[in-house]
Amino acid sequence: MRRYQQIASKALKTMTLIKDDTIRRYIPETKWYHRETLFQMLKQYPTIFIKPDKGGGGSGILRIRRVGADFECCSSYSCKTLKKQKLVSWIEKNLVSTKRYIIQQGISLATVGGRPFDLRLLLQKPGSKWELAGMVAKIAAPGRVVTNYCKGGTPCEIKRALLNITKNDQKKMEELILQLHFLGKKISKILNNRFKGLRELGIDVGIDKQHQLWVFEVNTRPQFKMFSKLDNLQMYRRIVRNHRRIV
Ligand SMILES: Nc1ncnc2c1ncn2[C@@H]1O[C@H](COP(=O)(O)OP(=O)(O)O)[C@@H](O)[C@H]1O
Ligand SMILES: [Mg+2]
Predict the structure, then answer these.
(1) Per DSSP, what are the bridge partners of residue 109?
(2) Would you state the pLDDT for residue 1?
(3) 2 inside domain
(4) Residue 3 has what pLDDT?
(5) In order along the chain (247 residues), what is the average pLDDT of each group of 10 residues?
(6) Is 117 part of any domain?
(7) Among 116, 118, 109, 104, CA closest to 28
(8) Same domain, 171 and 118
(9) Is residue 75 within 8 Å of 62, Cβ to Cβ?
């Protein structure tokens, strides 16, 4: 199997992307996790996410939400409401001491059937050009703060999810799809300029309740099994075909 370049650090990829004037607005504010940045971010935003810098599959992610003077704290396992004095010890109990963490402005995701969802763009470079080979919506499993497929997220046809939130506004849906094409093209170009050996990218894009798009992260060794769960297998077949040319 041929190996191609992988960049694990979310912070490094985010730093590369925010240098671009057109992409910066799509990236939620992101800092390294420290006690100071925690309280600073919690002053600024009602919800924040804490994520391992080098992690994946929705593992180790915490969501903290301000509720009056208290904080709702959710891990993969549970949610509980804590007083401010208990917050840091709860968070740090849930962090792995050998890992570095980032802290990110939380986006209030649009929902389908009451469940938050986000979008995955799959880009591949089987030859000399990047192709947007797949787009899918991932709907979070009940009670989850992440939409990841391996955490029970359900893949859903992207146009269906977008029509659902735009109340069947075909024009708005098509505008969003165009914006996603722009994001895919631009992000693959920026990252590939900086990291020459990339061949596949999985971009996680959130869509908030006002239908703004937000880029959460870019995976450089993306999974694509979720595309095999769609009724229409056209994208999946194309992805597999490209993948075989790449690895
Ligand atoms: N800033 C955020 N605001 C809202 N939801 C988020 C945010 N960051 C992550 N999430 C949710 O958590 C999921 C996993 O986060 P992500 O950054 O993709 O890490 P991983 O590498 O573990 O997949 C996202 O797909 C999204 O559903
Ligand atoms: Mg992800």
Answers:
(1) 208
(2) 66
(3) no
(4) 79
(5) 89 98 98 98 98 97 97 94 98 96 98 97 98 98 94 97 98 98 98 98 98 98 97 98 97
(6) yes
(7) 104
(8) yes
(9) yes
Q: Count of CB atoms within 10 A of residue 2's CB? A: 7
Helices 84-93 and 35-44 cross at an angle (nearest 10°) of 120
Assess if residue 39 is contained within a domain. yes
Report whether residue 224 contacts ligand 1, using a CB cutoff of 6 Å: no
Going by CA atoms, what residue is nearest to atom 20 of ligand 1?
Answer: 56
Last residue of a domain, one of 71, 86, 105: 105
**Atom 10 of ligand 1, nearest CA residue:** 146
Q: What domain range is 15 assigned to?
A: 10-27+108-246
Do 20 and 36 lie in a common domain? Answer: no
pLDDT given for residue 77 in this prediction: 86
Q: Same structural domain for residues 227 and 132?
A: yes
Lookup: tokens for 61: 């992610």
C-alpha pair distances (Å), 102 with each of 15, 29, 37: 12, 10, 10
pLDDT for the residue 2: 72
Task: Say how many Å lie between the CA of residue 87 and the centre of ligand 2.
Answer: 25
Query: Best substitution site from 61, 101, 205, 221 to test ligand 1's pocket, by max atoms within 8 Å of Cβ?
Result: 61
CB atoms within 10 A of CB 10: 23
User: Domain with 150 in it: what CATH number?
Assistant: 3.30.470.20
Q: Is the C-beta atom of 236 inside 6 A of ligand 1?
A: no
Whether residue 63 contacts residue 48, with contact meaning beta carbons closer than 8 Å, is answered with: yes
Residues 196 and 219 in one domain: yes
